[in-house]
Specification:
Blueprint (H helix, E strand, L loop, with lengths): L9 E2 L6 H5 L3 E2 L3 E6 L5 H12 L6 E5 L5 H8 L14 E5 L1 H5 L3 H15 L3 E5 L1 H6 L9 H17 L3 E7 L8 H5 L2 E10 L2 E11 L8 E7 L2 E4 L19 E2 L6 H4 L4 E2 L3 E6 L5 H14 L4 E5 L11 H7 L3 E3 L9 H15 L3 E5 L1 H7 L8 H14 L3 E7 L20 E10 L2 E11 L9 E6 L2 E7 L4 E4 L2 E4 L13
Parallel strand pairs: 3-7, 3-8, 4-5, 4-6, 6-7, 14-18, 14-19, 15-16, 15-17, 17-18
Antiparallel strand pairs: 1-2, 8-9, 9-10, 10-11, 12-13, 19-20, 20-21, 21-22, 23-24
Helix pairs in contact: 5-7, 12-14
Length: 494
């Protein structure tokens, strides 16, 4: 004997990133709690949900438990892009429960809610703040647990019987706070604010969502002019096409001689790490990579954490940005997280249909993060790289390295193993002159040059020269050995 599964309709919340974190949207007719300390964004998120979901067929009823009229609250909420004044009074209705809550009688509060629900027949119900209703009950401390549990259960059953999706907003500081609503609620969304130094970061956690697999963990979010945006960790996607490594098409680098050193260019869909000391030409190589793509009709995207690529004096790259052939991701916002940068990158890639991506540089990327995100930078970066590989873009990242004589490193973050290809740039002292050299260290599943090549930078960009040879020669009739030693540069032109 088989039984058919009940079908639960999932509502699209209208909040960027939230549906993915929830596990596919918000279950219709669910009973939810938006919890968190004051100022964490509960009211803003509730209004954003309401204006996105409310229709004439599914009207919304917003109960306020405030000592001031709802108009004052609306004065602030209407500053956000999601606010729709045309819906107020039509499919969005506000009711002030302040006087009912002040009586301290939970029964009268419930009766008032029932009366308003019967009058409006809403498909969405919000109570802001539900915690204020509890604290205003008879003993001033929220009443006894049994009566509160009965109140919450009755409210939940009533809303379900009315086929209303319900949101209770509450000022809770810890999930250890004793509250019956935690048990009764179908969904529990916890909004947090964490502080480290002078930085405050907002995070959202789906602690509970019945009937579906939500994404575990803390997810950063930002409140901007359009409201709340949640940044879910990027998930690897399936590339549009899959090639065997031997037949994978190549992307030209835009620097004469470098494609040959790499065995025919950078295989498409690969990630390339360009590592070197300050001023060695990493950003110039990244710009050439994007410019070469533009010459071949490919759109690029850049996330620059050190230099302004769209500066009027930025040369060819600035012109490409101005013409729309290269998109720029905003990296100037405070309290960035890797997941936020990944979301911005992927959104810009999809908007433009880009196939080449540059991150310049990983060093600046880490410094741009809020301090709380730096401890797991490598893990989050790996997730982002996997997601970018999954959508088929070719990625170039630069990494700042201190040039040392006694060791050869590729990245200060241990990210070299994550990348498919590595190009290292170094300074050398050669015949009493400071010069640059580069080498292709790795191109996965590809035959590449092992040569150390000198290169210089002029108005036309990077010029790769002769192979660097350490050999004995004759100078003034006396045998000598060409001395090669790494020294840090005394200037910057990267």
């Amino acid at each position: 004997m088989t039984s058919a599964k009940a079908t639960i309709n999932r509502l699209r919340t209208g909040v960027p990133g939230l549906d993915e974190v929830l596990g596919g949207g918000l279950p219709e007719f669910s009973f939810n709690l938006l919890a968190g300390p004051p100022g964490s964004g509960k009211t803003t998120l509730a209004h954003q949900l309401m204006f996105a979901l409310a229709t004439t067929e599914r009207p919304a009823l917003y109960f306020t438990v405030l000592g001031e009229p709802p108009l004052k609250m609306l004065r602030y909420q209407q500053q956000f892009g999601f606010f729709d004044s045309g819906k107020v009074g039509q499919c969005v209705h506000f009711v002030n429960l302040a006087e009912d809550a002040a009586s301290g009688d939970l029964g009268s509060v419930l009766a008032r809610i029932v009366a308003e629900v019967e009058a409006y027949g809403p498909g969405l119900v919000f109570v802001d703040s539900f915690r204020s209703v509890i604290l205003a009950s008879s003993d001033g401390q929220g009443g006894d647990f049994v009566s509160l549990q009965q109140f919450v259960q009755q409210l939940g059953m009533l809303m379900t019987s009315w086929q209303a999706t319900t949101f209770l907003l509450g000022e809770y500081f810890s999930e250890s706070d004793p509250s019956p609503v935690f048990t009764v609620a179908d969904g529990l969304l916890w909004m947090r604010q964490s502080q480290m130094g002078n930085t405050v970061v907002r995070k959202l956690e789906i602690m509970k969502m019945r009937g579906q697999a939500s994404l575990l963990g803390l997810h950063t979010f930002r409140i901007g002019n359009e409201g709340v945006t949640v940044f879910a960790p990027p998930r690897p996607a399936v590339a549009d096409a899959v090639w065997a490594d031997a037949t994978r098409p190549r992307a030209a680098m835009g620097i004469a001689g470098l494609d040959e050193m790499m065995g025919g260019g950078l295989p498409r869909g690969y990630s390339l790490l360009v590592a070197g000391p300050s001023g060695s030409g990493k950003s110039i190589m990244a710009g050439a990579f994007l410019a070469e793509g533009a010459r071949n009709g490919e759109i690029g995207v850049i996330a620059a954490f050190e230099q302004r690529p769209n500066h009027p004096r930025g040369g060819e790259l600035a012109a490409l940005i101005e013409s729309g052939k290269v998109g720029v991701v905003d990296t100037q916002a405070a309290t960035l997280s890797v997941d936020e940068v990944a979301a911005l990158l992927i959104a810009e890639i999809r908007r433009l249909g880009a196939s080449r991506v540059v991150i310049d540089s990983l060093s600046g990327f880490e410094l741009a993060l809020a301090p709380t995100f730096r401890s797991d930078f490598r893990e989050a970066l790996f997730r982002m790289m996997s997601a970018l590989a999954g959508i088929g873009v070719t990625l170039l990242m630069t990494s700042e390295l201190e040039d040392r004589y006694d060791e050869l490193r590729f990245s200060p973050y241990g990210t070299a193993f994550m990348t498919d290809a590595i190009v290292v740039q170094r300074y050398i002292e050669l015949d009493s002159s400071l010069q640059r050299m580069l080498a292709v260290v790795k191109v996965r599943a590809s035959v590449h040059s092992k040569e150390l090549r000198l290169f210089h930078i002029d108005g036309g960009g990077i010029r790769i020269g002769e192979m660097l040879v350490d050999r004995e020669g004759l100078l003034g009739g006396r045998p000598t050995r060409r001395r090669i030693r790494s020294d840090p540069p005394g200037h910057e032109d990267d």
